[in-house]
Amino acid sequence: MNAVIKFKVLKKTLQLSLLIAIVAISLGLVRAQQNDEVVRVNTDLVVLNVTVTDHAGVYVRGLRAADFKIYEDGIEVPASSITNFSLQETPYASVVLLDTSGSMESRLSLARSAAIRFLDGLRDEDVAAVFRFDTKVERLQDFSSGRDLAPLAYGVKANGMTVLNDAIVKAASELTARPEKRKAIIVLSDGMDTFSKASSSKALDMALALGASIYTVDMSATDGNASRNAQSAAILKNFADKSGARFVATPGGQALRDAFAGIAEELGHQYTIAFRPVNRVHDGRWRNLEVKTVRENLTVRTRKGYRAPKG
Question: Would you tell me the crossing angle of helices 108-120 and 253-267 to the nearest 10 degrees?
Answer without folding.
Answer: 40
